[in-house]
Amino acid sequence: MLNVEITVERWDLLFKSAREFFFAPVIDLGPLPRWKAIAGRGDEMQDTFFFIKEAIDAYFAGGVFAVSVVAGCVKGTKA
Fold this sequence. Notes:
By secondary structure, this protein is α+β, with helices and mostly antiparallel strands. It has one domain. 46% of the residues lie in helices and 35% in strands. The protein has helices at residues 18-23, 25-28, 32-39, 42-59; strands at 2-15, 65-78. The chain has a two-stranded antiparallel sheet. 3% of the residues are buried. The model has no long low-confidence stretch (mean pLDDT 92).
């Protein structure tokens, strides 16, 4: 007999600025290296992230923005 348990959790992470977002460990050590690889190298990558930073800060000026994180865990045991 196989017993399977699935747990799903959702969190909303709040950020005050693009700088806070990009330097948060969950972003910096998570998806950021892949985003940089997609954006290219050198000036092209720097320009891409500069414009993203400016857009985030302009759109959410004076407020906070949320990034949702959904995580799941599957645990199984075999009798």
